[in-house]
Design a protein that fits this description.
Shape: elongated
Number of helices: 7
CATH architecture of the largest domain: Beta Barrel
Strand content: 35-45%
Distance between the termini: 99 Å
Number of strands: 31
Largest sheet: 9 strands, antiparallel
Radius of gyration: 45 Å
Structural class: alpha+beta
């Protein structure tokens, strides 16, 4: 019984295998019965379409009348068809797909553009608020009051008492003439006291009291910090000798280091707001009082001085502060979100949104930037829509389609086409029809350095030249590509 079962299973397995194999064989195409296949034909729509021009997607600004390899890169040029003329300068995306692609728009707005620059500064003394105390005449120091450098003193604070022997004789003569009643002589004696350096207040005191006052008390004319005290009891002082120096604290300077890239936006009298870690929540307002003429060569920063009032005397030199330099345009300007601007290094572009899902690259002239906004000086109008997300994808598609944002400063096409483009190179191979050059970049074409073959405008260009010679090459733009117009020998390979 078991043997019969095994045989039945074996027969069934063989039948299934044969059925599968036969089905697979029948399903295969009968190649032998099919005639030779014709070559693949291009769709009729591609054959019948009229080509306007060919271009290199890497250099879409250059257009050619014939197909072939790009003179810039080793790749076939791409045709631009006439039936897509309406879309030749725009990129079209199905409006239903814009959300899937992450395309977001923003409106070009107009308004007063306020900017702010945040920098760090250090407080310093106001060097214009300084008092220098000197001896008016020679004398002897009889007393020095209890002060030391660094002390904060008040106005009219006594510094030292000076004995002036010369004053004693002059005052005795003045008092004698006063008792005589001769007004003319009295006036002459009073003038003599002034010439000896005696203050007017001391002369008036002598005249009122009728007693000789040979001592002079030196006082500080302002309140502030005592920076120097060069007087000691018993010392002799000469006329004009500096005895003390006081820095006022009614106002302080805030020294800022502004990056040189931002220095053009700093103006005299510009408003500034300072915030000090020592006084949280307190905003001090000041103005730019000076822009120093030199830039720090190490940090490439410009020194700017802001003057801050200090009525309570809490601001002390050496404190640090975070400063905001505020500025606003006097007239309204156009602006767009900064993320909408595509910076290529040579120019700035935006993708302008049009109707029916069309997008156009537009070159713009940008101004100052602040708080996520960029001022637009030229290229856009108020109310237009620009792309703020997905713009790089659209810009890449525009480059592949050969769409170029024209610059207003760009030269006319005729002038550009007639001019020569020059570069330095070395001859790799040359004959009477063409030359192979290892050349540097053609800057006017935006073409990088490479090794490529150029046709010669005339066989006479090869005369006197050989492989290895270093040359200055000038090429022109033709319908067939670049052509050598001039070869100037500059040296030869040793």
């Amino acid at each position: 019984m078991i043997s019969r079962t095994r045989k039945g299973v074996f027969v069934v397995s063989i039948s299934v295998a044969l059925g599968v194999a036969g089905g697979y064989w029948l399903a295969q195409p009968r190649v032998s019965s099919v005639p030779d296949a014709a070559p693949e034909q291009k769709p009729e729509s591609s054959v019948d379409r009229k080509v306007l021009y060919w271009y290199d997607p890497m250099y879409p600004q250059q257009k050619f009348d014939k197909p072939g390899k790009s003179p810039f890169m080793d790749m076939q040029m791409v045709p631009q068809y006439a039936d897509s003329k309406g879309d030749s300068d725009t990129v079209r995306i199905d409006p239903s797909l814009t959300q899937n692609l992450g395309v977001r728009l923003a409106t070009v707005s107009r308004g007063v553009f306020a900017s702010s620059l945040d920098v760090v500064g250090v407080l310093a003394f106001n060097e214009r608020d300084v008092a220098v105390i000197q001896a008016r005449t020679a004398g002897f120091v009889e007393r020095v009051y209890a002060h030391a450098p660094g002390d904060v003193i008040k106005a009219n604070a006594a510094m030292a008492d000076i004995l002036v022997p010369e004053w004693a004789a002059a005052q005795e003569e003045f008092l004698a003439l006063k008792r005589s009643g001769d007004a003319g002589l009295l006036a002459a004696a009073r003038q003599r006291l002034r010439l000896t350096g005696m203050p007017a207040a001391s002369i008036a005191q002598v005249e009122r009291s009728g007693k000789v006052q040979p001592n002079l008390t030196l006082t500080s004319p302002i309140s502030g910090v005592l920076q120097e005290l060069n007087v000691r009891e018993g010392m002799t002082v000469a006329a004009g000798e500096t005895l003390a120096r006081v820095n006022g604290l009614s106002s302080v300077w805030l020294a800022l280091a502004v990056p040189e890239t931002e220095s053009g936006s700093i103006l005299m009298g510009q408003a500034a707001e300072a915030r000090l870690p020592a006084f949280p929540g307190v905003v001090l307002k000041g103005v730019v009082s000076a822009i120093l003429p030199e830039t720090n060569p190490d940090s490439r920063t410009l020194r700017v001085r802001v003057e801050l009032p200090n009525p309570e005397g809490r601001l002390r030199p050496g404190m640090t502060a975070r400063v905001s330099l505020n500025r606003s345009t006097e007239q309204s300007v156009l602006w767009v979100p900064s993320e909408a601007v595509i910076r290529t290094g040579r120019r700035a572009l935006v993708m302008l949104a049009e109707d029916a899902g069309r997008y156009r690259p537009v070159e713009v002239l940008i101004g100052q930037e602040n708080d996520g906004k960029t001022a637009i000086l030229k290229g856009l109008e108020e109310g237009q829509k620009v792309v703020t997300s997905g713009q790089f994808l659209l810009d890449s598609e525009a480059s592949l389609k050969g769409i170029v944002a024209n610059s207003e400063e760009q030269s006319p096409p005729s002038a550009a086409a007639s001019s020569f483009h020059e570069a330095d190179g070395q001859i790799v191979e040359i004959n009477d029809k063409e030359v192979t050059l290892a050349h540097g970049p053609f800057k006017t074409l935006g073409m990088p350095g490479m090794t490529m073959t150029f046709p010669l405008a005339t066989p006479a260009l090869m005369l006197g030249l050989k492989t290895g010679d270093k040359v200055r090459v000038a090429v022109s733009q033709t319908d067939d590509g670049l052509r050598v117009e001039r070869l100037d020998k500059s040296g030869s390979q040793p």
